[in-house]
């Protein structure tokens, strides 16, 4: 029997680790893809490597894209500080067109290995309000994939799986624990230390800590 | 008066040079974007720099993306030869999801500089049959841009300008000459030498030579 294959976008954070575990539980042979885009929280790339190995990804690649050159985000511009509290509106940690870019890279790799299944850990409930985490975005990208690719034109199917999109952070954590994800190995913090220790104050840290509290699961995060 | 700004994807070939000239003729301040994706015809990146300067682009950036790692195309895989003749179907020079990726990078930069105008030199007449050169692809990407970005969510307009999409190669060449493009500085060949000399045999060389012949304009291409 030929295995089902899927590309899984793996940032090294809590959400994408859970998505990889979900894809594995559905018997996909997983090609995990991380992107080194000049993010300040580079410890997440080390975390991605550990998670890919722990969850038996078939392969793990880190692709380099130089987004720091265009700036425009607190995550890629060293001069722009990471906010220390949640605020209304789309925050300055938004990286312009990031998920469009990540899915483009995933789409290219999917064509090469011959699969139409791509998993991504976007979430539109306990999130920072990024536009490219919403169902409308996922649907628009699926539509694009069908007309953009040789595989799509030749009748291939493309599906962007976003299993977390309507889940609360607490539900994501519960699902991950059930599937054996070691959340202690994940890094969510936007300004993690080189060793992956979290700041406890950024958007991402606050959403994560609130999720563990709501799920009534001990928080394994290493704080700085 | 604030200038109109646009991102212009600039490969260094004949088509994108003409697009840059068209955008300039429409009074756009142009931010030219080239992508170093590990293509074998690296001479086109040098050509892009010369063209950006000659046509007074406001700025020119070359972003690096490592596509050679995923392979799957004769343009990025050194082991896969470039075909020496046109053949039916989508050829092996197709780079999986290339224009999706290029437009994603353009979209990110567009958000940062605050414009919704992106120019791209795709053409669906005298072309190699790539799926991501067709009107359906351009429309799907425009739709995606509106839901994918902070600017789109906040009511901003995104337009992917593809002024060449229904033009013959001869018409493109005539338009470029009218606008002062020095086609001798452009590189179209998929396996150009380091100095930019063309092979005369690949798809891209054949389409280009036929275009100059049909336009009855002397072909300034330097052949190896």
Question: Could you write a compact summary of the structure shown?
Answer:
Two copies of one chain form a homodimer. Chain A has helices at residues 14-25, 43-54, 98-113, 135-148, 150-153, 169-178, 203-215; strands at residues 4-9, 28-36, 59-64, 117-119, 159-161.
Classify the oligomer: homodimer
- Lateral strand order in the biggest sheet of chain A: 3-2-1-4-5
Q: Would you tell me the overall average pLDDT of chain A?
A: 91
What kind of sheet is the major sheet of chain A? 5 strands, parallel
List the helices and strands and how they pair.
The structure is a homodimer of 224-residue chains.
Chain A: E1 4-9, H1 14-25, E2 28-36, H2 43-54, E3 59-64, H3 98-113, E4 117-119, H4 135-148, H5 150-153, E5 159-161, H6 169-178, H7 203-215
Helix pairs in contact in A: 1-6, 6-7
Walk me through this protein's architecture.
Chain A has a single domain, classed as HUPs (Rossmann fold), CATH 3.40.50. The longest helix of chain A is centred in the middle third of the chain and has 16 residues. Chain A is built from seven helices and five strands. Chain A starts with a strand and ends in a 9-residue tail after the last helix. In chain A, strand 1, helix 1 and strand 2 form a beta-alpha-beta unit. A five-stranded parallel sheet of chain A has the order 3-2-1-4-5, sandwiched between helices. By secondary structure, chain A is of the alpha/beta class. The interface between A and B is large, with 45 and 45 residues.
């Amino acid at each position: 029997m030929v295995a089902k294959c899927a590309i899984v976008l793996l940032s090294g954070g809590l959400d994408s680790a859970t998505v990889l575990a979900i894809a594995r539980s559905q018997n996909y042979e997983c090609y995990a893809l991380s992107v080194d885009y000049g993010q300040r929280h580079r410890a997440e790339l080390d975390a991605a490597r550990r998670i890919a190995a722990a969850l038996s990804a078939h392969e793990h690649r880190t692709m380099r894209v130089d987004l720091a050159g265009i700036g425009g985000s607190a995550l890629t511009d060293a001069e722009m500080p990471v906010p220390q509290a949640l605020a209304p509106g789309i925050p300055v940690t938004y990286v312009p067109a990031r998920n469009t870019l990540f899915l483009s890279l995933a789409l290219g790799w999917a064509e090469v290995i011959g699969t139409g299944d791509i998993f991504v850990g976007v979430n539109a409930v306990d999130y920072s309000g990024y536009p490219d985490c919403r169902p409308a975005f996922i649907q628009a990208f699926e539509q694009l994939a069908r007309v953009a690719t040789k595989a799509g034109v030749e009748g291939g199917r493309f599906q962007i799986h976003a299993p977390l999109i309507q889940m609360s952070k607490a539900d994501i954590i519960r699902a991950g624990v059930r599937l054996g994800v070691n959340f202690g190995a994940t890094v969510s913090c936007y300004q993690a230390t080189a060793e992956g220790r979290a700041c406890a104050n950024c958007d991402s840290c606050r959403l994560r800590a609130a999720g563990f509290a709501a799920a009534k699961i001990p928080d394994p995060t290493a704080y700085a």
